[in-house]
């Protein structure tokens, strides 16, 4: 998932900053409100079109799929009250709740899931997440315009039973069902608003614990309000969750110190200054921030130039002193702590092998860069590095500019812009070089590795390798039923991508927070939509 999934979605998005506060209410009773700040704007709440982490966090609370993901990504009942799986693992039958409703009062039906999945996969929608449906019957053919969307392996058996047919077992299928891309959509609402669908809180309906209110599409404040039509509304303890965009972490900390906020994310500098202060917590993120070089560019087609740019970056310094806030230096695309080997429980990053270009070596980097420039036939190189305009990402951009300009003949200009703009430009490949990020959609390495395949719309660097594509295809198809073989495919794929410097991994993000102990029950998962407020409360 792209920042915004941070720069992730890129700008990802970097990471969403949440700051929570309890508010007073009328009649002397405490209003059960959490007030939250975020460093990125909402761009859309159309689940077929978004790629932003911040938006997925909103969708995870205002909508609901067949399952919800609880603590540690545990699969819990959602709209499906029960399900059965065929012996070959290729057919799932879901029995839906008859008391599930949309916020407009309409029932949530099996047809709403059929419509939503078909809409997302329809090439006309241009969703960047259609590839997640791979393995569901005819999904790949539909993506490649070789089959009609009506042939997708999902069928409504009346109003409250749904059957999904797979082409092969999908080891992570239930985790996918808890990700917002697989949630239902109300066709009546989509048709009513047309191109305006999901561009404001009023042009959408909701079936989750909360509804989205007070978002015009361009403003920097919005509210999640308890949904009176939610089937499990008795379990929802909060009245609302209020968001406002705050891009300067010093502002958030000041509000926390003034007891106007219950939870504030710290910048790297703040975290260092405060040490291990009471009520400070760390939150790891299954993510990778990286540099994407547009490989349609003549210079960036050269492997030595790409390797030199990777080798000149001191990742340990970058993570600890520039980014901070719990960031982890990494020589991997797949994040640490996401998944372990079925053979021996080894973390994926330990099984994979990082190439020499992922190790800081300025002397070798300068030599490689000279050789690459000679091969391309140029004496100097000047490009613009695009990144988001959040405080931390500006700091990162300045460090990268300084590091990269150590290479002889290289000049880097910075362009830090709002998240909604950067995501659009990345999707359209309107950049020469950009800082990007990817946040895991579920707890499996393939959530990272899929995006570097040659036809994936999130492959913004436009790197291509037939061998890589074959390895990923094998992991999703032929070796899908063999856990060991599938793992080996994925390890080989990452090794190949980094050896060829498809992207330049920088760091795995983390967050340092000051949290008031009165805030309870927020479920935070490192992969997928991170925040689940259904069971949250404030004393």
UniProtKB/TrEMBL annotation:
<keyword id="KW-0653">Protein transport</keyword>
<keyword id="KW-0813">Transport</keyword>
<dbReference type="GO" id="GO:0042597">
    <property type="term" value="C:periplasmic space"/>
</dbReference>
<dbReference type="InterPro" id="IPR039424">
    <property type="entry name" value="SBP_5"/>
</dbReference>
<comment type="similarity">
    <text>Belongs to the bacterial solute-binding protein 5 family.</text>
</comment>
<dbReference type="InterPro" id="IPR030678">
    <property type="entry name" value="Peptide/Ni-bd"/>
</dbReference>
<dbReference type="InterPro" id="IPR023765">
    <property type="entry name" value="SBP_5_CS"/>
</dbReference>
<dbReference type="Pfam" id="PF00496">
    <property type="entry name" value="SBP_bac_5"/>
</dbReference>
<dbReference type="InterPro" id="IPR000914">
    <property type="entry name" value="SBP_5_dom"/>
</dbReference>
<protein>
    <submittedName>
        <fullName>ABC transporter, substrate-binding protein, family 5</fullName>
    </submittedName>
</protein>
<keyword id="KW-0732">Signal</keyword>
<feature type="domain" description="Solute-binding protein family 5">
    <location>
        <begin position="74"/>
        <end position="457"/>
    </location>
</feature>
<feature type="signal peptide">
    <location>
        <begin position="1"/>
        <end position="21"/>
    </location>
</feature>
<dbReference type="GO" id="GO:1904680">
    <property type="term" value="F:peptide transmembrane transporter activity"/>
</dbReference>
<keyword id="KW-0571">Peptide transport</keyword>
<dbReference type="GO" id="GO:0015833">
    <property type="term" value="P:peptide transport"/>
</dbReference>
<dbReference type="GO" id="GO:0043190">
    <property type="term" value="C:ATP-binding cassette (ABC) transporter complex"/>
</dbReference>
């Amino acid at each position: 998932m792209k920042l915004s999934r941070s720069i992730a979605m890129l700008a990802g998005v970097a990471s969403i900053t949440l700051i929570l506060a309890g508010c007073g209410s009328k009649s002397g009773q405490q209003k059960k409100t959490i007030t939250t700040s975020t460093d990125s704007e909402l761009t859309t709440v159309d689940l077929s079109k978004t790629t932003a982490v911040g938006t997925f966090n909103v969708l995870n609370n205002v909508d609901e799929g067949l399952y919800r993901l609880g603590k540690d990504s545990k699969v819990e009942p959602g709209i499906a009250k029960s399900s059965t799986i065929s012996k070959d693992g290729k057919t799932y039958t879901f029995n839906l709740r008859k008391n599930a409703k949309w916020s407009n009062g309409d029932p949530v039906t099996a047809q709403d899931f059929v419509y939503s999945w078909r809409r997302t996969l329809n090439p006309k929608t241009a969703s960047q997440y259609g590839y997640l449906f791979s393995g569901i019957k005819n999904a790949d053919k539909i993506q490649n315009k070789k089959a009609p969307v009506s042939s997708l392996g999902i069928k409504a058996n009346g109003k409250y039973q749904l059957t999904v047919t797979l082409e092969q077992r999908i080891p992570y299928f239930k985790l996918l069902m808890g990700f917002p891309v697989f949630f239902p959509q109300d066709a009546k609402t989509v048709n009513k608003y047309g191109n305006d669908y999901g561009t404001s809180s009023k042009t959408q309906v909701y079936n989750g614990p909360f509804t989205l209110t007070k978002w015009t599409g361009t403003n920097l404040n919005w509210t999640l309000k308890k949904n009176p039509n939610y089937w499990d509304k008795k379990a929802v303890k909060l009245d609302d969750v209020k968001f406002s965009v705050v891009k300067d972490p010093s502002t958030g900390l000041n509000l926390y110190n003034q007891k106007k906020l219950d939870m504030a994310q710290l910048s790297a500098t703040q975290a260092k200054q405060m040490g291990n202060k009471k009520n400070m917590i760390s939150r790891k993120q299954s993510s990778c921030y990286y540099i994407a070089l547009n490989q349609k560019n003549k210079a960036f087609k050269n492997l030595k130039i790409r390797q030199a740019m990777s080798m000149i970056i001191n990742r340990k310094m970058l993570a600890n002193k520039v980014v901070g806030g719990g960031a982890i230096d990494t020589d991997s695309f797949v994040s640490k702590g996401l998944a372990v080997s079925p053979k021996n429980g080894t973390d994926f990053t330990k099984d994979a092998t990082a190439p020499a270009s992922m190790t800081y070596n300025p002397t070798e980097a300068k030599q490689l860069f000279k050789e690459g420039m000679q091969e391309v036939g140029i004496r100097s190189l000047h490009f613009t590095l695009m990144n988001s305009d959040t405080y931390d990402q500006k700091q990162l951009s300045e460090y990268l500019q300084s590091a990269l300009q150590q290479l002889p003949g290289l000049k880097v200009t910075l362009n830090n812009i709002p998240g909604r703009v950067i995501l659009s430009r990345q999707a359209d490949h309107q950049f020469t070089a950009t800082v990007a990020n990817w946040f895991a959609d579920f707890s499996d390495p393939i959530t990272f590795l899929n995006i570097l395949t040659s036809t994936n719309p999130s492959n913004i660097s436009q790197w291509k390798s037939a061998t890589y594509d074959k390895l990923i295809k094998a992991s999703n198809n032929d070796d899908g039923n063999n856990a060991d073989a599938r793992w080996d495919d994925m390890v080989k794929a990452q090794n190949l991508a980094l050896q060829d410097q498809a992207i330049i991994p920088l760091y795995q993000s983390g967050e340092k927070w000051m949290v008031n102990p009165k805030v309870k029950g927020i479920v935070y998962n490192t992969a997928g939509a991170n925040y689940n407020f259904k069971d949250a409360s404030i004393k």
